[in-house]
Amino acid sequence: MEEDRSIRRANVAAGAARGEAAAGRRLRSPWLGDRRGAAVDWATQRWVQLTGRRLEVDEGHWLDGPYGSTDRIGADFFSRWASERGLEVMPSSPDAGLMPSLSELDGPGFDSRRVHPLVRDFYEHTAAYRLDIWSQWSGFFRPFGEALAWIFSRRLQQLNVPLAPLDSARGMGSEIVRLVEPGRCPAAPVLTGWVRRNLGSGSTVYVGAYSTARIPGHPAPCVKVVFPLPNGSATVIMKPSVADSGALVLESSGRRIGDAGFYFRVRDRGSRSWVRYLRTFRERIRVYAETDADSGVDVLRTDHTFTLWRRVFLRLHYRMARG
Predict the structure, then answer these.
(1) Contacts of 40 (CB under 8 A, 6+ apart)
(2) CA angle, 126 as apex, 297 and 213 as ends, to 5°?
(3) Is pLDDT at 195 greater than 90 in this prediction?
(4) Which residue among 3, 50, 174, 305 sits deepest, i.e. has the most Cβ atoms within 10 Å of its Cβ?
């Protein structure tokens, strides 16, 4: 058993090193053992417990999602998660999407029929698209972004947002991973993951589990994205709406636990968890089609804005095209 654990740790370290070699410097935090992990991660989890709220399973089931081990997250997270839980990874499909149908979000205030066909196609056939990304950090917040990358993102290979536009100049790799229960027919995914990699550095940018969720504070289904972290997760719940142009707008804003917004979640003993709701941290995603002035062809784009205390600290712009 101890030998197997040592081999696993060695393999994890080797995988992390490959992704981090080109990604820049990272903090070498003291290791507190397999259960607690890196000291800086353990301290962050204690902060969630001290400032958050403990939820029973029946209270916070809408926050459920995959959580990470204490080693790292990385591009192979969903394969490891499936292996540990007796699930199977479906064969890669060039037509797989983040959701089978955008109509899963239909409800009071949202009608998917009003969404532009290109936007709908992207969500239902995400794997068919190639991505380019540009990032712009607010000057005041840029040191904050660099600190997060140094302390957490590069080491964990998770939430590795580009710090400068040229950091992602070679584009972004995109993979849809679907997990199913073995032998079940039809093979409906029990989890859909989206893994994005920086093709220039080889580092993992995002590892997220995508689904819809009904939450106490909103009458219609929301988009839920769970980003696994050591012993827990960061979960973003976004309310959908449709702009006049057919753009899909997703917003994570609210006032309290049960609303749309950003949540840190740490596993507790049994089925309980500690949850910290960050009311001052918000995101807005606008996915839209824009007619290219030269070709006259509709181009799919996304504007992704992050705010803290109502101040914009990061903008991401995506260009998506079937490839």
Answers:
(1) 27, 29, 151, 152
(2) 125
(3) yes
(4) 174
pTM for this structure? 0.90
Positions of E strands within 2-157? 53-55, 88-89, 129-137
Q: Give the Cα separation of 221 and 152 in Å (integer).
A: 31
Quick one: tokens of 122? 């992207």
Tell me the C-alpha distance between 162 and 154, whole Å.
11
Task: Evaluate whether 316 touches 304 at the Cβ level (below 8 Å).
Answer: yes
Q: What is the pLDDT of residue 18?
A: 44
Instruction: Give the whole-angstrom CA distance, residue 203 versus residue 191.
Output: 23
Which two structure tokens, joined as six digits, stand for 121?
Answer: 């196609």
End-to-end CA distance of the chain: 45
Domain map of the chain by residue range? 2-322
Token pair listed for 47: 């902060």
Taken as a whole, the chain contains a residue count of: 323
